[in-house]
Amino acid sequence: MTELVSYDEALATYDPVLGFEVHVELNTKTKMFSDAPNEFGDLPNTNVTPVCLGLPGVLPVVNKAAVESSIRLGLALNCQIAPVSHFARKNYFYPDTPKNFQTSQYDEPIAFDGYLDIELSDGEVFRVEIERAHMEEDAGKLTHVGGSTGRIQGAEYSLVDYNRAGVPLVEIVTKPIVGAGERAAELARAYVTAIRDIVKALDVSDARMERGNVRCDANVSLMPKGATTFGTRTETKNVNSTRAVENAVRHEIERQAAVLNGGGTITQETRHWHEDTKSTTAGRPKSDADDYRYFPEPDLVPVVTDAEWIEELRATLPEMPAVRRKRLQAEWGYADKEFRDVVNAGLLEAIEETIAAGATPAAARKWWMGEISRLANVREVEPAALGVAPADVVDLEALIGEKKINDKIAKQVLEFIADGEGKAGEIVEKRGLAVVSDEGALGAAVDAAIAANPDVVEKIKAGKMQAIGALIGPVMGATRGQADAGAVRSMILERLGV
């Protein structure tokens, strides 16, 4: 195994060139070319028709809903929509492709020449140009049985499920991406995240990467600093999380740099990503377009669009994620860094829901970015999985505003909410956590603190007001933190005649 060089060392010597092919499964009711159900998780080989299985004599029919979803996605990617596009046969032999070809689009895709402006973690914007977004059908799914990795290497046998065969796909292909430098891996993650967010906003896909609804093939090559000719690329296939895409690009940069530094050459090939080892291994030699022997699909007519249809579909587009983020930041009044921190933490939706439930933007951000995130980190779960709902934050803020609890008690209540003990008000009552407001009990605690600290009293009377904390502390301790610190301070000053 090649010993890797560090990421920084690799980028000091080489410039990375990236390219991404993101496959988006559409959530139409039926498949791309047949009326077979498009459902995830059903029993193997139950959502199939003769068309899915490539049986002799069958003819495909294009799914209009899939075409419309493809056009809407193309528009969201700032693409041109082709007046006429054609399907083609992409020929290759593999058990999960029963026809021995994939119906796809080649030289005449439905959408082309688009772009996305990708915002990185510090606010820098990087434009990624999109070459094409074309329609095609998905392959079936192979399950390799035996062996330790679940891959074909070492497996005893393989099972094939054709339920996925024929599911509508849009493949989004970028132009070569140069100039990302040390931010190449971060850009990879941000780009795939942006695609996922767009298809979710459009509601054209379930966009669950763990199910393969969105998959990324990441192309990486290196060229020496100052060179203008691209290096030989590798294609890491079917990466199914945004973090894995980032790690796969980083690993390939480090691996390819090590090979080149050692005088070796890069093989043009597909590679497999291994999440457990955070590394890639060789797949098969990478085919070029000529190897697939594309030719026009004789059984399908061209897809013809017109301006009126396109504009009708454009009118259905929702607010795009990037536009929505700018609007929300303006509405909430967050500074640039504050808002970026929220987005980078993955808490935008939680904070939006909390504000919609009645919290102020400042309070929503305080709780989700502060105590909720801290507690989630301690418990090793995502904040959304902690068990705290937006309404709980609103309840806590209301109890603080009514002076029934203070911030310290609110943090305790939050933990009990996360433990499933109920709503904030119920917990405060059941556990006796309300702020001590009885003047008799509070006055007794204040008097005891004054009597026990005559030196502190003299400092306060001499004008050294910062010393008052030495009296407030014992009172808060005597009331188990359930006194209002402001009320305690006022009572101390009143007692001392200051």
Automatic annotation (TrEMBL):
Residues 349-496 form the Asn/Gln amidotransferase domain. One of its GO terms (molecular function) is glutaminyl-tRNA synthase (glutamine-hydrolyzing) activity. Its EC number is 6.3.5.-. It is an enzyme of class 6 (ligase). Belongs to the GatB/GatE family. GatB subfamily. Heterotrimer of A, B and C subunits. This is Aspartyl/glutamyl-tRNA(Asn/Gln) amidotransferase subunit B. It comes from Falsarthrobacter nasiphocae. The gene is gatB.
